Amino acid sequence: MTELKFLASRSAGEVSALLTRPEGARWMMVFGHGAGAGMRHRFMEDAAAALAAHGIATFRYQFPYVEHRSRRIDPQPILLATVRSAVAAAHAAAEDLPLLAGGKSMGGRMTSLAASREPLPGVRGVVFFGFPLHPAGAPATDRAEHLSSVMIPMLFLQGTRDKLAGLDLLTPVVEKLGDRATLHVVEGADHGFDMLKRSGRTAAEVLDELAGTVEAWTVRLG
Q1: Between 7 and 71, the higher pLDDT residue
Q2: Comparing C-alpha atoms, which of 93, 120, 85 is closest to residue 19?
Q3: CB 25 within 8 A of CB 59
């Protein structure tokens, strides 16, 4: 694992990143964190390790508010600028690897928002580890309206207990996107892909399923 820095935006300054590149890597995932935790969160660490086991390098990065320990999430323009800067920094760090981009919850949604406004150079697909379709207890689909403007393939990894994305709402959204979108559902997983004890499945098993799904999906990207 290599620690790096890159300029998120002129106003927000530098942020940190972690590059994990396994031997024989075939892809690089530009991996944004969720709203409530940074790139060193347990899920981000474990997901990066699972992806590495499936031949996918990761470029985890901080959004500026986490880097600078602010309690207030950055304004959307700064979040989107950070996504674009992270993609450029990841490409510079591993020019030989084709890129995926996305992330956990907010990190994934900011990536697709950025891609909907202007293509992300070199990015072949967007991966959502739990797309946050709506706030908990407030079902809606407004947050998905921009997805029709994302012109590259998208992979949605979702749990059946995800309170931020009711499958009764998300499934029609994905179907409307046609061949560009793929939905993979993890039975019993919540928004953080945690499972109930009675499921008999470990967190490592679930993450291996998610990483294996990403790997299989990349084969279709060519």
Answers
A1: 7
A2: 93
A3: no
Which tokens sit at 128? 């959502």
Measure Cα distances from 145 to 63, 109, 140, 183 in Å.
23, 11, 11, 17
Structure tokens at 188: 């019993």
Beta 99-104 vs 27-32: how paired, if at all? parallel
CATH superfamily of 2-221: Alpha/Beta hydrolase fold, catalytic domain (3.40.50.1820)
Q: Tell me the C-alpha distance between 137 and 165, whole Å.
A: 10
Average pLDDT score, the chain: 96
Report helix, strand or coil for 5. strand
Q: Side chain identity at 15, as an amino acid letter?
A: V
Parallel, antiparallel or unpaired: strands 2-9 and 56-61: unpaired
Summarize pLDDT for 92-141 with one digit per residue, the tens. Answer: 999 999 999 999 999 999 999 999 999 999 999 999 999 999 999 999 99
